[in-house]
Write a structure and sequence with these properties.
Elements lengths: L4 E6 L4 H5 L11 E7 L3 H12 L4 E4 L15 E3 L2 H4 L3 H5 L1 H12 L1 H11 L11 E4 L3 H18 L3 E4 L16 E4 L2 E3 L2 H14 L3 E3 L4 E7 L2 E6 L2 E10 L15 H4 L3 E10 L4 H7 L5 E3 L6 E5 L6 E5 L10 H15 L8 E11 L6 E5 L2 E5 L6 H15 L27 H17 L2
Parallel strand pairs: 1-17, 2-3, 2-12, 3-9, 5-14, 12-19
Antiparallel strand pairs: 4-8, 5-7, 6-7, 10-11, 11-12, 13-16, 13-17, 14-15, 15-16, 18-19
Helix pairs in contact: 2-8, 2-12, 6-12
This protein binds flavin-adenine dinucleotide.
The site of flavin-adenine dinucleotide (FAD) has 41 residues, from α2, β4, β13, β17 and α12.
């Protein structure tokens, strides 16, 4: 492949150009009502709600606050579509499935309200999403699911046949698709920073550069041992998601790490392109996520000048370097958009998402430690919502049961949080995608 890298290429998130995670506090307090491990959307949202309820909260992150997936993602704000699209009736029965879908869909009005209430400047737009079909069979599956998704989210869905695909996407690559209005877009770096500012303004203490090593019950509270000393807290929330196990193998909450499968996701950003060309590619500025098993997700940048293209470009154990993964993303991008073959990319980056074995996000409490995790790669709204719900639970301020707080959180036997099986599973999914397309 010809050189795809611009001279000013950086293996760092495009979002960090405008909003690199900032240095916050570095001094560790000796005690807090609630200590929160992980300074992403979940931890920050929990801290904000706890402060509003009058509890003092300290957020501890091993890196800078917001450094994890929360400042690296695609910025697609989903209204619970991932959960609602799952096969929940069969797994949980109709009544529980309805409650779960309702709890997930509620993440969307929650984040919209949070952004407005806290006045978070993060380029938020309710733009809707287009899901292009990888095969005619996927189109029919979307068609069957569309009414259910509309009912679950309370917002319209509509089918767009292949002949009209260019109304939503400047490409003939797919077999038509579905639009879903329950989706927004934002600048994830600005949202992470804005949420951190809101939590700090409300009085939360945000400490970066402190890695939690162990959490031990102590009386009715806990002692949190870190590489910078101990913190005593009345309660602890672990919100470490795709980063729950450090590369060396340590985990603040091993029980949680055994229930999460971290998967690397990769994104590239093109150089600035002509705005008219971007409008041709994304006529309605929708967020796009296709129906492949190893999906492509892509969007225009908030300023309408670049294409941001994401996917699971590598399942290699330990992850691939962003620049190594970039050519595969570039090929996928220019297969879909041949109009931009030859453009250069200025950024490539990666981050970890967390999958669960039952396909659901979870909050809960184990051995006296609270946790919030498992957004299946769709956590901008969901992680914010799980953090809020965890805070209500810790403060005993929830006035209704939360359907994503379930006792049963499955673990794989003999799995310790290091997914040795991912390269095999990834290749299997890729093969299934190829077979489906060849048969289309
Ligand atoms: C490339 C990419 C694209 C994505 N695209 C989208 C998208 O378009 N839409 C969407 O909805 N979702 C998307 N996601 C998922 C979304 O970003 C996540 O679900 C969400 O940000 C998770 O937030 P979180 O607060 O749970 O975890 P994170 O933001 O990952 O934060 C976890 C934090 O825990 C810290 N930590 C871990 N262990 C310790 C320890 N022992 N001590 C102290 N700190 C610790 C880490 O340093 C990290 O900062 C994407 C994710 C990635 C990586």
């Amino acid at each position: 492949m010809a050189d795809i890298f611009a001279p000013d290429f950086r293996p760092a998130p495009y979002w960090w150009d405008a909003a690199e995670p900032a240095e916050r506090e570095t001094a560790l307090p000796a005690e807090a009502d609630v200590a929160i491990v992980g300074g992403g959307y979940a931890g920050l949202s929990a801290a904000l709600t706890l402060r509003r309820l009058g509890h003092n909260a300290v957020v501890l992150d091993a890196e800078r606050i917001g450094w994890g997936a929360s400042s690296r993602n695609g910025g697609m704000v989903s209204g619970g579509l991932k959960v609602a699209g799952g096969d929940l009736d069969r797994k949980f029965g109709a009544e529980q499935a309805r409650a779960i879908v309702g709890a997930a869909a509620a993440s969307f009005p929650f984040i919209e309200d949070l952004i407005a209430r806290e006045n978070i400047d993060c380029d938020y737009v309710r733009c809707g999403r287009f899901l292009p079909a990888w095969t005619p069979g996927h189109y029919r599956a979307l068609e069957a699911k569309a009414p259910k998704l509309a009912e679950a989210t309370g917002m319209p869905t509509a089918m767009l046949p292949r002949a009209r695909q260019r109304e939503e996407l400047g490409s003939d690559y797919y077999y038509g698709g579905m639009t879903a209005e329950a989706t927004g877009s934002l600048h994830p770096g600005k949202y992470a920073r804005g949420l951190a500012d809101a939590a700090a303004r409300a009085g939360a203490t945000l400490v970066g550069g402190v890695r939690v090593q162990t959490i031990a019950r102590h009386g009715s509270g806990a002692v949190i041992a870190t590489d910078k000393g101990n913190v005593r807290a009345g309660a602890v929330l672990v919100a470490t998601n795709g980063y729950s196990r450090a590369p060396g193998g340590a985990a603040a909450m091993p029980w949680l790490a055994r229930r999460l499968v971290p998967v690397a996701s990769y994104i590239i950003a093109t150089e600035k392109l002509d705005k008219a060309l971007i409008r041709e590619l994304f006529p309605n500025h929708r967020m796009i996520a296709d129906t492949k098993r190893v999906l492509n997700y892509f969007r225009p940048s908030p300023d309408g000048e670049r294409v941001l293209w994401g996917g699971r470009a590598s399942f290699r154990s330990g992850g691939a370097a962003p620049a190594e993964a970039a050519p595969a993303l570039y090929k996928a991008m220019t297969d879909v958009f041949p109009q931009i073959r030859g453009v250069k990319i200025t950024h490539a980056w990666t981050g970890y998402v967390a999958f669960t074995l039952d396909g659901l996000p979870h909050i809960g409490e184990q051995d006296g430690i609270h946790f919030a995790a498992g957004c299946q790669g769709s956590g901008v709204a969901m992680a914010s919502w799980l953090g809020h719900q965890s805070a209500l639970k810790i403060a005993r301020a929830a006035n209704a049961p939360f359907a994503l707080d379930v006792k049963n959180f499955p673990a794989l036997p003999l799995y310790d949080g290091r997914p040795w099986f991912l390269p095999l599973v990834g290749e299997y999914y890729r093969l299934r995608d190829r077979i489906d397309r060849a048969a289309a």
